[in-house]
Amino acid sequence: xxxxxxxxxxxxxxxxxxxxxxxxxxxxxxxxxxxxxxxxxxxxxxxxxxxxxxxxxxxxxxxxxxxxxxxxxxxxxxxxxxxxxxxxxxxxxxxxxxxxxxxxxxxxxxxxxxxxxxxxxxxxxxxxxxxxxxxxxxxxxxxxxxxxxxxxxxxxxxxxxxxxxxxxxxxxxxxxxxxxxxxxxxxxxxxxxxxxxxxxxxxxxxxxxxxxxxxxxxxxxxxxxxxxxxxxxxxxxxxxxxxxxxxxxxxxxxxxxxxxxxxxxxxxxxxxxxxxxxxxxxxxxxxxxxxxxxxxxxxxxxxxxxxxxxxxxxxxxxxxxxxxxxxxxxxxxxxxxxxxxxxxxxxxxxxxxxxxxxxxxxxxxxxxxxxxxxxxxxxxxxxxxxxxxxxxxxxxxxx
Length: 399
Ligand code: PLP
Fold this sequence. Notes:
alpha/beta; two-stranded parallel ribbon; binds pyridoxal-5'-phosphate; seven-stranded mixed sheet
C-alpha cells in the first residue's frame, strides 16, 4: 500500500468550483457572480487610488526588518480605531488584545483556537446561513458548532423573533458569531433597534459576541455607520471579539491584511490573551508578510489618504446599490410572477436570490451566469453592460 493511499480528496470549496466552471466556459456572454470581490463597471478588478499612493509612500521601507513590529502595532491601533470608533481608547487603556492577522480568515481561526484552548467545551453559535468557511474554521479548530436562526427564506428577511429565541435558549455564557454588516451570504442585517435588543439580551444571558467584519463600508457606504453594531455592544459594556479584513474594502484580497482584537476586563487579561494569540500565530505562520500591513497602516494613519479611502469605499458601495436598483427595475418591467423586492432590501456585496437548485442549474447551462449553489449572487459582478442580460436570464428561469 502506498504511503498516502488512504487520503481521499477533500471536498471542493463551492466558491472555487464556481470560478473554475466560469473560466472553462467559452460563451462570450458569461457572467461570474460567484466570487465576492469588487469589480468596476467594466467588470475589471480595481486598484484603489489610496493603495497606489500608499505604495509609492512606503517604497522599500517594508524591507527593513526593524519595521515589522512597529508596522504591526500601528495596524492594530488603526484597525481598532476603525472598528471601535470613540471606544478605541480601550486599546490605550490596555484592555484590548490585538494582533495583525492574515486577513479575516486567520483572524477567525486565531479566535477559534483561543476558544478551544480556554473554553474547550463551549460551542460557537453560527448564524443560519453564514459564510461557508466559518463551519470549516471552527471545525478544524475542534470547537463544537451550533447554529442560531437568522434568515427567513419566505420573507427573505431577518427572522428576528427566532434569532432572539435562540439567543435566549442558548446556555448562559455562550459564544455567538455575528456579521456586523453586509451579511454573507444573505445581505440581511439587523436594524439598529434590533442590534440594541440583541445587545440587551446578551447582557442578561452573559453571552460573548464575536464580530466577523469582512465588509465594513459595503452595507451603507460609510465605514462608521457599518461599525455601529460593534459600538452599540461596546457602549453597553460587553467584552467582544472582532475580526477585521481589508480584503474587500481596500480590494487587497491577495495581500491578506486583517486584525483580530479581543476586548478584556483589564490589562492583565489582555496581556495574557495577546501572548496566547501570539503563540498560536507563531506555530502556524509566525508573522504575516509586512507589505500589505504597511499599505493599510499608511492609509489609516494619514488623515488625507484615509479620507480618500472613505470616498473610494463609498463609490464602490454606491455602484453596487445602483446595480441593485437597475436589476430590480429591469426585472419588474419584464413582469414575471416573482417579487424582486429583496434585491434592493438586501445590502452589501451579495443578493441571496432565493432561486431553486433547478433555476440555478438553468442559469448556468442556458445563460452562462455563474452563482454559488446556495443562490448567492455577488452584485459586485453586475454592471451596466450585463445587467439587462442578467435580468433577462433571471426572468426566463423564474417565469
Ligand atoms: N468573513 C466573511 C463573512 C467573509 O465573507 C470572508 C470572505 O469572503 C472572510 C471572513 C474572510 O476573507 P479574507 O480572509 O479574504 O479576509
